[in-house]
Every structure is written in structure tokens, then in C-alpha cells.
Specification:
With 103 residues, the chain is α+β, with helices and mostly antiparallel strands. It is built from 2 helices and 6 strands.
């Protein structure tokens, strides 16, 4: 799960409608370049989206605890979702809102 040999990747309709393309692309970049080999990752990853000096940051959560924060150069908007999940079922990976995932 979440390896360099990743399957097709998608974002849900709700994520596409609530985040700019760059912020969605950053999630995949963050997974590939900052998290692999540094963090234990299950098939369901959770992130809170936070305002950090008017820029979007992602807090990576494990068991409800913040493990790392990843800052972006993108402006934070109040209408952004408060959290997202990234799910890998082995055949595909998707960024979604927590309410969209039925596991």
C-alpha cells in the first residue's frame, strides 16, 4: 500500500469541488516524496487541513494524534474541508472526504 509502484489515483467529486487542483496534487506529492519510508502508512490515511499563516497545511493523523505537518505555498480558504482521507484498496487510490468512505 502506498508504494512507488502505485495504482491509478483519483480524487472524489466532493474533493475536486472543494480543493484547488494544486492542493490535490500536493497530497500525492507529499505521499511519494515526504511520507514513504519515513512514516508507517496503513491503507487509510487521515489529514486535517489547517490554516497556517494564511497558507494550507496538512496535519497527518495516526490514531487521532498529529504525527507531522506538511506546509504548502497555497492560500488557505475557509471553505476547504476540515479533513480528508486517502484510501488505497490495492487496485486504486482515492482522496475523499471522511463522510464519503464506507469501509
Amino acid at each position: 500500500m502506498f508504494t512507488n509502484q502505485h495504482p491509478p489515483r483519483y480524487a472524489s467529486y466532493e474533493v475536486i469541488n472543494s480543493l484547488p487542483d494544486e492542493a490535490i496534487d500536493f497530497v500525492w506529492y507529499m505521499l511519494d516524496n515526504y511520507m514513504q519510508g519515513r512514516f508507517t502508512m496503513t491503507n487509510l490515511l487521515k489529514f486535517n487541513l489547517i490554516n497556517s499563516s494564511n497558507h494550507l497545511s496538512y496535519d497527518y493523523l495516526v490514531n487521532g494524534e498529529e504525527v507531522a505537518t506538511f506546509d504548502t505555498p497555497y492560500p488557505f480558504e475557509n471553505q476547504f474541508p476540515r479533513s480528508i482521507v486517502v484510501y488505497d484498496n490495492g487496485d486504486e487510490q482515492i482522496i475523499a472526504l471522511p463522510s464519503e468512505i464506507n469501509l
